[in-house]
Amino acid sequence: MALTVGLRPLTRALLRPWARVPGAALGRPAAGSGDGVRCFGSPRVLVEPDPAAVGVAVMKMRNPPVNSLSLEFLTELLISLEKLENDKTFRGIIITSDCPGIFSAGLDLLEMYGRDPAHCAEYWKAVQELWLRVYLSNLVVIGAINGISPAGGCLLSLSCDYRVLANNPKYAIGLNETLLGIIAPFWFKDVLVNTIGHRAAERALQLGFLFPPSDALQVGIVDQVVPEDQVQSTARSVMAQWLAIPDHARQLTKNLVRKPTADRLLQQRDADIQNFVRFISRDSIQKSLHVYLEKLKQKKG
Amino acid sequence: MALTVGLRPLTRALLRPWARVPGAALGRPAAGSGDGVRCFGSPRVLVEPDPAAVGVAVMKMRNPPVNSLSLEFLTELLISLEKLENDKTFRGIIITSDCPGIFSAGLDLLEMYGRDPAHCAEYWKAVQELWLRVYLSNLVVIGAINGISPAGGCLLSLSCDYRVLANNPKYAIGLNETLLGIIAPFWFKDVLVNTIGHRAAERALQLGFLFPPSDALQVGIVDQVVPEDQVQSTARSVMAQWLAIPDHARQLTKNLVRKPTADRLLQQRDADIQNFVRFISRDSIQKSLHVYLEKLKQKKG
Amino acid sequence: MALTVGLRPLTRALLRPWARVPGAALGRPAAGSGDGVRCFGSPRVLVEPDPAAVGVAVMKMRNPPVNSLSLEFLTELLISLEKLENDKTFRGIIITSDCPGIFSAGLDLLEMYGRDPAHCAEYWKAVQELWLRVYLSNLVVIGAINGISPAGGCLLSLSCDYRVLANNPKYAIGLNETLLGIIAPFWFKDVLVNTIGHRAAERALQLGFLFPPSDALQVGIVDQVVPEDQVQSTARSVMAQWLAIPDHARQLTKNLVRKPTADRLLQQRDADIQNFVRFISRDSIQKSLHVYLEKLKQKKG
Lengths: 301, 301, 301
What we know:
homotrimer, alpha/beta, six-stranded mixed sheet, 11 helices, 14% strand, globular
């Protein structure tokens, strides 16, 4: 974990210069920002134009300690993504984590435990929305995966156009839902099958595999594994390669390839929400969540 | 073949201790078994609780000489599988062969040659049923493939959750139907595509490839190749890994991944039977079968 | 390019002996051929029975300089393919190029630039027809890819049953449409996904990858890479392997695997033509084509 902790000062340093960049430097006046800085960010989602690459934003997830995808965090992510999509100055996003050692721990169990059905439904709709927005984004989306990335964190990674994983044996990635006694929804499964093929997905999903970097690369759940201090620079190089392609042709082609998978959810989005609510409301599942959350508390305590 | 023959005494030895295990030792009274032994077995299907692993049954196919899937043998397999599914003491099955050198030679041509349409239809329904039952089994099903596994024998292997193949160059596995002038039905094709991908399946199916162990592993038609005397122990280790996952989550996930493939047959099961009967009843096909069966007779004679 | 140029005299030599083969040598009288030679060929499509293999035709594309798939060339290809399909003496075709260094440059932009919608529609229908005829051919179709093979040239390659690529680093293959600012139609995408899998296709299509031989082999967009002077002989050896399978079983199996992909186009063929015409008629696309064609002119001039 030393390497990760070591990175934090660097991260801060990267943030500071950006904070001083005037909005005008990006070709238009700063809007809704008191100190004249153009800022899409929110408390949990730091968005900065890449100082070295025109048209690229770096989006840092900062929902400590583990970037759990709470409803509030999801909402902030969605707002930031929408703003970036609508801002013509941006053509690509690098998604990365500001929480040392963790890309994202995935869905927030507290949004599902002891909540009423309406809340669970609202939560699930936001989870769907995040996937649809990232998976079908018109922007090039590169995942700079600088930490462990289980379950929903893995889904977020899989929704990017390209995945660069830091070569730290602790940084495993996978859809490990079965280990918690729950199951991934069909569209998590579809995205995994698209990425690593049917057989590898069948096995990984049932066994709840969390792939360490070398296995992750071999099975194809990530595209590249690099030393931890090269994750961001590699993501930038890859971004340059993707941005060399005319946007319109790339976007239509991305849509051609990904739309059929997204459509499977879009055609039954409400039913999928109902399914989730029904599943999560079961006594047996609530009990499993209780046991699991108690364990987490004891760990912390 | 020496290795295989050498294994037989061991197999017998494994059977004998089981024969002495009283049903009560499994936590409930023996039922329908004269000597107090719990026994799902039938003349051709030996079912024994794994002496070393709680909840695991070993199912040995013994329909000499080549474990041809005759209607009678299929029926016994189906009954054993159903009993195991309904018996709460079992969570996994290891399927293996008691016939040296042969896992299963596949469908029994004698059930298709010179038979009336009603018989062929009944036979095909049983073949479908075996696939559906193994492919969608709630139990973990591991194939301990200790012999050659062509055509229907390969389908049975592909329907398991995991395949361990003995590293003997004679133990080839594949859907070699075209070599006999017949064609695999669409659901054999679907399962092969799911396992090794579209392109490899396209080529293997047309050329009737029988993959020897090293090629089988490389193309992914089996998951693991081990020395012949380690097939059973490896299957047991793998089983332990699968049984570490909560059953309910694993079963739902398996269903999530496999149901769409099974549904393609379920939605047109009768049409598939009619197709088979029509195809097999053609004069040209009956002639091909005749030629092939005559060749087999001469070999034996 | 030295190697390729060096090959031309050889190619001519191969053609000359064929020109002297009397039709009667193929077991039936020559028809519609002034000098008694059986000849399916046309000015741009040379078809010759393989002198060394019964039942095999070699089809050489000769539409210099780059085998652009013009409407006229497509029409000749289609007529030749239809004749071969209907001629019981042939069981397989080897498709190769007679233009040094280029297998086929793909679609002819001059058939799309400055043309009226009716012409574009007619052209697109011919492109569809070529794909359907090669992809679903009852004959074994082997691609002896002796040159670069971008875009439509790659599609033609992907539609073969097997691809042998000459090991020359200049001979790249891929669907590079996005580089020109256009997009591959869905059925190009489907065939690429079938061949190299969903993830590799997603990336290659968006980035317009042209794979040099070693990468092409690794990703699986070709089946074999051999020294340039062994492409034809390797294609012949592979053909022998495919012809060892009974035709009827192989054809039905090919249809089983490929028909669902072809059906996706067949079910919406007119809509696909309208889509193409609408897309290509856009001012922005016409302008892109203009720019590109002007560049090509300058290169030549």
